[in-house]
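Journal club side-thread
Mid-discussion, someone asked how the predicted structure for our own chain would compare to the paper's figures. Pasting it here so we can look after the session.
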Amino acid sequence: MNLETVHEILTSIWTVWAVLIFAVIVFWAWRPKNRKRFEKDARIPLNDKD
């Protein structure tokens, strides 16, 4: 196994890892449980502090 083969394997593993992390974040963000929190957080700039 040469260095080029190792690089290809690591690149493939990194790509799969990145896609999995992205999928987990998307799943977490789209859960109905988080909807109320995100709606509340979206209104933060509009809240009056005076």
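Post-session note: The radius of gyration is 20 Å.
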